[in-house]
């Protein structure tokens, strides 16, 4: 149970950084921490005690694989989710660079042309 | 054995088609022939729209398609990509691709003011692929990936104008949008660990079995996941406590993109996903019904009140989108409430039909309003209501389209918004929620006042220095607006007054929502091919 709670705590840390921090870069870091927390939660969910890597070993039948391995689906899902989080990171960093060029600051309290 | 041609075999085209077009367009853009790009974009959008209409006409029961025949390879588990298709899917697909088609025509001319049309079309079609994917996804993880794809493209499209404000809006949108997809992913992980599957149909069976074992109640773990989903998709559909990003993001985007975002994106990835998960996966429950009704009525009221103070035409429209989405969610909340209390089936059907009808109507008239706002901005260079005036003589087509859409959104008979709001209000009263019915009437009157103000400020009165030499937009922009206005009027009249149209278009979708979990737990999982 403890690993799950720790993952959710890490998620809370990331979301806190996204909401409470004033610096654009720190907000992006918070986003990444939160995404890692969810990925970690996925791996933890798919783990089984003493399970081996989800690769079909030489000479192993699929029945032995199903009994011995950790959940391969969770790991495949983590791979895809890492790719999507990488693309979100790229877009957000690109936006951060352009915001810095336009406003000359990373402080979101000074980046406020939109109101109402 | 010769098999009759089955349209559902073409379902992957809704995702693969626009993805392919996105790649082709970015290659063709190197030739620097903008006409070729326009033709490719419009023709492929037309193709998708035709396919969606054919799908609606063909009808048929709920089915699961395993792309490439990978389904059920053995008894051990489900591999492969599943696409789910039923009445609700067909209706939303048709709306998404209808609006996308008109917006694509409008964009051919409008996008000339920006530097790289190739990039625009590329992102535009990837966004369509993402939305179609969300609507078709037969398993939760695909839904998440397509959700992320559509959202990523929309973040980039909001920043497409490359001005300071647009970057600011895009960043705000990106942070809140990513937060919402994160919450959705957490919900998916929790459900996966609880049910051991990602496939929607199988997951529904596991959840029904679990709730049967708990005496008809969902176990706590499932409720936690449902909470994450409601927060995530609520953020995506800009329900009121989660709405902060929408009034910045939607006006900042180029007009065709605003029309797509407000018209269909918040419905395909927000409202549709909420409906699918609440009604079909978890099944209606009283707690969720209360949440939906509260979110809906809050959005309805706060959205329209915030809209009053706005000077920027597109920002005003964005706030009114929040308000109108409130109607949709409220209608589904009422339907959910009646179903959860085992109330009369007819009332639930009426509420759900009202919600779907208003969803379709809002998609058409709100995208039309954003297109007219774009046309006005294109001609005058401003969208500040104080600087506009006297446009009705100068831009007749735009003005008439704006009038029709405004009459629809403010619920004046016989335009489309009137019928759908009327149905929602009747359903609220029949379900015993008098207060909500009165609230809906009041918000409708406020909307009318709001749009009368818009009409007077922008179209009526004397011309100002900005509007003095304004002239009508080119046919490429005027024609899709006029066509969309015709669609607004036709859907409103046909949907209410012409039962065959309603039976063909809305009833299959309504039945999917009302039948609840049995839709997904009855669907054939194995692949017969």
- Give the count of helical stretches of chain A: 4
| Dominant shape of chain B | globular
Q: Indicate the low-confidence ranges of chain A by residue numbers.
A: none
Low-confidence stretches of chain B: none
The chain-level structural class of chain B is mainly alpha
- How much of the polypeptide of chain A forms β-strand, as a percent range? under 5%
The helix/strand order of chain A is HHHH
Largest sheet of chain B: 2 strands, antiparallel
Helix fraction of chain A by DSSP (H/I, runs of at least 4): 55-70%
- Largest interface, Cβ cutoff 8 Å: A-B, 35 and 38 residues
Radius of gyration of chain B: 22 Å
The helicity of chain B comes to over 70%
Descriptive report:
The complex is a heterodimer of chains A (about 120) and B (about 525). Chain A is mainly alpha-helical and about 120 residues long. Chain A has helices at about 1-20, 25-45, 60-70, 70-105. The longest helix of chain A is centred in the last third of the chain and has 32 residues, at about 70-105. In chain A, about 25% of the residues are buried. By secondary structure, chain B is mainly alpha-helical. Helices cover about 75% and strands about 0% of the residues of chain B. Chain B has a two-stranded antiparallel ribbon. The chains are: A mainly alpha (about 120), B mainly alpha (about 525). The interface between A and B is large, with 35 and 38 residues.
């Amino acid at each position: 149970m403890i690993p799950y709670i720790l993952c959710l705590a890490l998620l809370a840390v990331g979301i806190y950084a996204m909401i409470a921090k004033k610096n654009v870069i720190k907000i992006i870091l918070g986003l990444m921490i939160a995404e890692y927390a969810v990925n970690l939660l996925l791996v933890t969910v798919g783990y089984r005690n003493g399970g081996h890597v989800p690769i079909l070993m030489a000479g192993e039948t699929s029945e032995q694989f199903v009994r011995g391995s950790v959940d391969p689906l969770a790991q495949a899902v983590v791979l895809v989710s890492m790719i999507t989080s990488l693309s979100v990171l790229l877009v957000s960093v690109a936006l951060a660079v352009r915001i810095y060029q336009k406003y000359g600051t990373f402080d979101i309290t000074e980046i406020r042309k939109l109101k109402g | 054995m010769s098999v009759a041609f089955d349209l559902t075999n073409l379902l992957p085209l809704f995702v693969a088609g626009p993805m392919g077009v996105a790649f082709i367009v970015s290659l063709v853009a190197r030739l620097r022939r903008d006409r070729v790009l326009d033709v490719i974009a419009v023709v492929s959008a037309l193709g998708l729209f035709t396919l969606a209409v054919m799908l609606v006409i063909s009808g048929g029961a709920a089915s699961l398609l395993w792309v490439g025949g990978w389904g059920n390879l053995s008894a051990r588990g489900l591999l492969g990509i599943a696409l789910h298709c039923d009445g609700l899917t067909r209706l939303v697909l048709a709306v998404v691709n209808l609006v996308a088609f008109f917006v694509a025509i409008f964009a051919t001319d409008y996008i000339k003011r920006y530097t790289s049309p190739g990039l625009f079309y590329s992102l535009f079609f990837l966004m369509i692929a993402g939305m179609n994917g969300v609507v078709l996804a037969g398993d939760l993880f695909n839904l998440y990936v397509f959700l992320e794809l559509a959202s990523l493209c929309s973040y980039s499209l909001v920043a497409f104008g490359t001005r300071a404000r647009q970057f600011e809006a895009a960043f705000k949108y990106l942070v809140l949008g990513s937060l919402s997809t994160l919450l959705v992913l957490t919900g998916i992980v929790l459900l996966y660990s609880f049910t051991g599957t990602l496939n929607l149909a199988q997951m529904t069976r596991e959840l029904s079995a679990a709730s049967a074992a708990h005496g008809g109640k969902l176990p706590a773990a499932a409720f936690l996941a449902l909470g994450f989903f409601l927060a995530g998709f609520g953020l995506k559909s800009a329900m009121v406590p989660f709405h902060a990003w929408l009034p910045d993001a939607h006006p900042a985007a180029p007009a065709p993109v605003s029309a797509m975002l407000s018209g269909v994106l918040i419905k395909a990835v927000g409202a549709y996903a909420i409906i699918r998960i609440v009604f079909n996966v978890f099944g209606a429950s009283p707690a969720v019904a209360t949440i939906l009704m509260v979110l809906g009525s809050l959005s309805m009221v706060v959205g329209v009140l915030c809209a009053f103070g706005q000077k920027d035409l597109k920002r005003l429209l964005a706030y009114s989108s929040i308000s109108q989405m409130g109607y949709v969610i409220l209608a589904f909340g009422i339907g959910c409430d009646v179903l959860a209390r085992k109330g009369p089936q007819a009332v639930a059907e009426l509420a759900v039909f009202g919600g779907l009808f208003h969803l379709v109507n809002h998609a058409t008239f709100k995208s039309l309003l954003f297109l007219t706002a774009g046309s006005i901005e294109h001609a005058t260079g401003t969208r500040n209501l104080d600087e506009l005036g006297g446009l009705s003589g100068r831009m007749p087509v735009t003005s008439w389209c704006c009038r029709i859409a405004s009459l629809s959104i403010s619920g004046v008979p016989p335009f489309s918004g009137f019928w759908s709001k009327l149905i929602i209000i009747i359903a609220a009263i029949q379900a015993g929620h008098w207060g909500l019915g009165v609230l809906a009437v009041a918000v409708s009157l406020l909307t009318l006042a709001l749009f009368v103000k818009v009409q007077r400020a922008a179209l009526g009165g004397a011309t100002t220095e900005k509007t003095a030499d304004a002239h009508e937009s080119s046919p490429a922009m005027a024609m899709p607006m006029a066509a969309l206005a015709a669609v607004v009027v036709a859907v409103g009249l046909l949907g209410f007054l012409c039962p065959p149209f309603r039976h063909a278009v809305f009833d299959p979708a309504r039945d999917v929502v009302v039948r609840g979990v049995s839709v997904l737990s009855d669907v054939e999982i194995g692949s017969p091919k």
